């Protein structure tokens, strides 16, 4: 009986965890503040940002190649 009570005590709070809103094609997470390893690229809504790992953010290659001559 004590074992069942212990298992329920541990698993019930885990089952009530709020789901995280995904963004950027499920590669980002909606948060109020991004972690240091993430970048803010778009808004999820008015209060939160879409925090994405920099390796998934596209790079604008036209501006870096503007000095190249034809």
From TrEMBL:
One of its GO terms (biological process) is innate immune response. It comes from the Eukaryota. InterPro entries: Beta-defensin (IPR050544), Beta_defensin_dom (IPR025933). One of its GO terms (cellular component) is extracellular region. Its main location: secreted. Residues 1-17 form the signal peptide. Keywords: Antibiotic, Antimicrobial, Defensin, Disulfide bond, Secreted, Signal. It holds the Pfam family Defensin_beta_2. It is found in: Secreted. Residues 22-51 form the Beta-defensin domain. Has antibacterial activity. Belongs to the beta-defensin family. This is Beta-defensin. It comes from Hipposideros armiger (Great Himalayan leaf-nosed bat). The gene is LOC109384378.
